Amino acid sequence: MRPLNDAVPPGISVRQLCLTLDQRPLFSELNLDIVGGAFTALLGASGVGKSSLMRVIAGLTPPTSGQINGSDGLPLAGRIAWMGQQDLLYPWLTVEQNVCLASRLKGKKADRDLAQHLLARVGLSHCARARPATLSGGMRQRVALARTLYTRQPIVLMDEPFSALDALTRTQIQTLAAEVLVGHTVLLITHDAAEACRLSHHLLVMGAAGIDTCPPLRGLPPRAADDISVIQSQATLLKQLSRLGG
Question: What is the largest CA-CA distance in the chain?
Fold first, then answer.
């Protein structure tokens, strides 16, 4: 499901980005290009600045200096959807109402047809009138994914959205996310090398000196966990993370 039309969505262009928090420089003169219409995973050691970088890209944290735009040269504001580790569903709203939250916040009429379509895509049509408290963790993340898609934004930022799930549920939701986010520009932060290699078109590793690219991945996501190319890419990625202290 493409976010708006059949055109390839914009990528993300980061130029000379600097960020200092509490008098501590997190990164300096960072340059980065995220490919439009593709799934890119960003890995690195805890505290290196991955989540801070994502918050700057999302416009939630102002940079100390530097520029962030779409690859089309236009600002990213109004073109980004966010999915975090916590589903943040409103317990007093139904599943369908949670999916339509963007309309509710804007004072607009909910697009129930779109919500039902998205719930069907994530396998939760039968839960539209349920409350979040009645759902499992995996089901709640499916609702959060549908809510993310409901915004119909071309760029999706994901900060470890599957890390709180058990191994089997995580694999299922990973596969679902890769399938329903086709046609979006996705930046995923993860500490899971296997997850990155299953889901991504491109891999990036963030270290103290900046961001390094990784060797190209073979095939298209979602890849099988036991695919030999996934296993080989995971081993290569772990070595690169180890060199950078990840």
Answer: 52
138 with 168, same domain: the answer is no
| Per-residue pLDDT at 3 | 53
Residue 123's domain comprises: 87-152
Distance CA 80, CA 12 (A): 11
Output the pLDDT for position 59. 94
Assess whether the previous peptide bond of 132 is cis (omega < 30° from 0).
no
Domain count, the chain: 2
Specify the pLDDT at position 2: 52
Say what angle helices 137-150 and 167-180 make with each other, to 10 degrees. 20
Task: Specify the DSSP element, H or E, that contains 156.
Answer: strand 155-159
- List b or e across 205-234, with b for residues whose CB sees 16 or more CB atoms inside 10 angstroms: bbbeeebeebeebeeebbbebeeeebeebb
Q: What is the pLDDT of residue 22?
A: 86
Q: How far apart are CA 244 and CA 246, in angstroms?
A: 6
CATH of residue 221: 3.40.50.300
From 152, 176, 206, the end of a domain falls on 152
pLDDT average per 10 residues of sequence, the chain (246 residues): 66 95 88 96 91 94 95 94 92 97 93 95 95 95 94 95 88 91 95 94 90 88 90 90 73
DSSP string covering 89-127, please?
--TTS-HHHHHTHHHHHTT----HHHHHHHHHHTT-GGG
